[in-house]
Structures are given as C-alpha cells and as structure tokens.
Specification:
407 residues; alpha/beta; 8-stranded mixed sheet; 8-stranded parallel sheet; 16 strands; 39% helix; binds N-(iminomethyl)-L-glutamic acid; binds zinc ion; Metal-dep_hydrolase_composite
C-alpha cells in the first residue's frame, strides 16, 4: 500500500505551534506536508513543495490568501445533555443568579432530570449534532464531561454515549467523569461525596472509558476537602484530576488543583495572585472560559495576569445548557475583547495550550513535524482575523489526520 500524502500550501499565514512562553510560530506563505496523517514537513511553501510536490499528493489544498492553523482543541465542555434551559436565561435577565437557580433545584439539576429520562439513542443523537457544529467551526478534539446523571447508572450511560458518539465522529472526544457536578436532590453533600467515591468511581473505572475526573469545587457545591477526597480517589483509579475552581468564589479550588497535580484548573474568575502562583508552580494549565463570563454577565478571568508573568492560558467553550457556544472562533473574540488577549495568545489558547490542558502528547494543537495532521483552513488573510471577525464562521476546510473531514 502506498503512503497517503497530504499537502496544504500557499497560506498567507500558517501556525506551526507554540514559541516562547506565550507566543506562536507563524510562517508566511506557509505549507505543511503529512504522510499517513502525521506531519512530515512544515515551512515556506517553496521548500515544502520542492520535497513534496502537490501533484503527487492524495490531498492537495491551495490555501492562497487563507490562514492555516492546527485544528482547535476545546478542553472543557458539558456537550452531552438533554432538555432546554432557555427559560433560565430569561430568568437571569430578570435578576436571578446562577447560584440561586441551582440551590432552588434548577440549573444542573433540571438537566439531570432530562438526561435521566432520555434514551441512550437520544443522548448519542443530541451529542452528534453538537459535534457536527463543532467540526464545522474547526474543532478537531473536544473534552466532554459526564455530570448530568449524578447516579451510577446515568453517569455510566453518559460516558457510554460520549464514547459511542465520539467513536462514530471525525472529532476526537476525550471523556471526563464528573459525578461531582452537583448534589442530587435528597442527599447531603458529605453523603453524596461518599457515594461518588465508593460507588461511582469504582464503576467508572470498571467501565474504562473516562480519562479525567473533574469536580465543581465551589461555594454551595463541593468544598475543597470534598473535592480533594474525590480527586485523590479518582487518581487511585488512574483518572487524572481537573477542577472547576473559583467560578463564583475562591474556596480553595486552586490549592486542591495544585496539591493533586491536576491537568487543569478551569474558570478562575475569582482567582487571586496566590492562587495563580499555586497553579503555575504546580504546572497546572489554567483554562479560561470567556463564553461563561459573557453569558453570566460576570467579570472575565484575569488571563493577562498569567500571560504577563510568562504563563500560557488555554481557552475553551464550556459549552453547556448555561453557556450555549460551540465555536472556538467566538471564544477567540470574547478572549480578545474581554480579556485583552492578543491574536497570538488566543491561537495558542485554542490549540497547543488547550492540548496541554488535556495532557495530549501526540502533537495535537501543533503542526510541527511528527504531530497528528489535524488542521483548519480559515478563509481569512491572517490570524488576527480569527478574533477580529465575529459575524460568520471563517472555516473553509477541516483536516483530521491529513484527511478532509469538512469542506
Ligand atoms: N459550573 C459548573 N458547570 C458548568 C455549568 C453546567 C450547567 O449549568 O449545566 C460550567 O462549567 O459552567
Ligand atoms: Zn464546566
């Protein structure tokens, strides 16, 4: 069997990968070549085509006037759900807060009701529709959390549906167990924490689908001690920790993330200088979710404080019924305007930094040699146009492992 050759050439700007603490390496008039889905050459078009002529390629894309990036990695979503919470959007416009809605038994708990009632087929169908939308907007890898089951059976059903939809779809899916997303009605938090540790975690480990274990460490939800207990137990089953930290109040989530060696700490709207130092000293990737802040009408996370001290920041949609955004392009705009992130920082946040938040080690989020050839061609002349334009989807072609999966 002959090798499968992919060549993308002539891009006015092509992003290779990270450069320096927070920047990116960009090649003008750039090209890359991939053999059997792995990047083998990247650089000026003339050099790449001299070695890998476009006429020999199975897939040849003339990207003249366009911008080529690694496929977007979206490292934080709750993309599997059922039901409709648009009425809560309206209630929030009238002054209700997210925390009030949740403590009154709404919010996450209403989605739990809808997910428990949904069939397995409905769950897979819902998620597949969302994966289609993500792919059309340039996302090639997405993390998806359980956490709308809050009982062993439904948490396992969610992880199975995530696995099923992901295995049939071009987008790569990274599954996270998040039984500790809220406390189900009729249980107190200590009791439910013990249930997650002694019943859900062993069953999730037996099922063998989840990569990460995440906890909503938040005022009125799981305390720092409860979060630590769950994440340490998850580690014993081989699940890498992640933490929802400091979304509404700083109650120690960043300490927990640092102590358990989390891959990421996410949200960080109320994180102070000590919390930031704890994360960066422990090598925890900060993930900021500007769509959530925008949707809540809240102040944005202080991404600049990380960046100005030389630490990269990952970006994610946080797509969920409270934050209905599936497009990293819009997140790029919100990150720029809301947090003053530059186009270079934004692109790194949506690609290699996001891959770091998922501990991906196969080069996803970059187009350097030996990386998986996941790439997105934008019909715009430079990376600045990604955050600058927010009216239409700029994606013209998406490649996964060197194969066109959307055009
Ligand atoms: N804050 C906790 N979890 C989600 C929201 C989930 C929901 O409201 O359904 C988040 O990260 O924003
Ligand atoms: Zn979340």
């Amino acid at each position: 069997m002959t090798d499968h050759l992919t060549v993308v050439y002539g891009a006015s700007e092509l992003v290779v990968g990270p450069e320096g603490p927070t920047g990116i390496e960009v090649v003008a008039d750039g090209a890359f070549a991939a053999v059997d889905g792995t990047v083998v050459a990247v650089g000026p078009t003339q050099d790449v085509l001299a070695e890998f002529p476009a006429e020999n390629a199975d897939v040849a894309i003339d990207a003249t006037g366009k911008t080529v990036l690694p496929g977007f990695v979206d490292p934080h979503t709750h993309a599997l759900f059922a039901g409709d919470r648009s009425d809560e959007f309206v209630a929030k416009l009238r002054g209700a807060t997210y925390e009030e809605i949740l403590s009154d038994g709404g919010g996450i708990l209403r989605t739990v009701d809808a997910v428990r009632e949904a069939t397995d087929d409905e769950l897979v169908t819902n998620l597949t529709g969302h994966l289609d939308a993500m792919l059309e907007n340039g996302t090639t890898t997405v993390e998806i959390k359980s956490g709308y089951g809050l009982d062993t059976e439904t948490e396992l059903r969610m992880l199975a549906a995530i696995d099923e939809a992901g295995s049939r779809h071009a987008v790569d899916v990274v599954p996270t167990f998040m039984g500790a997303h809220a406390v189900p009605r009729g249980m107190d938090t200590d009791e439910y924490t013990e249930h997650v540790v002694s019943e859900q975690l062993p069953a999730v480990a037996d099922q063998g689908i989840a990569t990460f274990c995440d906890v909503f460490c938040e005022r009125g939800v799981f305390s720092a001690d409860q979060s630590r207990r769950i994440l340490e137990a998850g580690l014993e089953y081989g699940l890498t920790p992640k933490v929802h930290a400091d979304e509404f109040a700083a109650i120690g989530g960043t300490d927990v993330a640092a102590d358990v060696g989390a891959a990421s700490a996410d949200h960080l709207l109320h994180t102070d200088a000590d919390g930031r130092a704890r994360l960066v000293d422990a090598g925890v990737t900060p993930v900021v979710l500007p769509g959530t802040a925008f949707g809540l009408g809240a102040d944005y996370a202080d991404a600049r404080a990380f960046l100005d001290s030389g630490h990269e920041v990952a970006l994610a949609t946080d797509f969920n019924p409270n934050c209905f955004v599936r497009t990293m392009g819009l997140v790029a705009t919100l990150a720029s305007v809301g947090m003053r992130m530059t186009p270079d920082e934004v692109v790194r946040g949506c690609t290699s930094a996001a891959a770091n938040a998922l501990d991906l080690s196969d080069g996803r989020g970059t187009l350097a040699p030996e990386s998986t050839a996941d790439a997105v061609v934008l019909d715009v002349p430079s990376i600045a146009h990604l955050p600058y334009r927010f009216d239409t989807n700029p994606v013209s072609t998406v490649l996964k492992s060197g194969v066109v999966v959307h055009a």
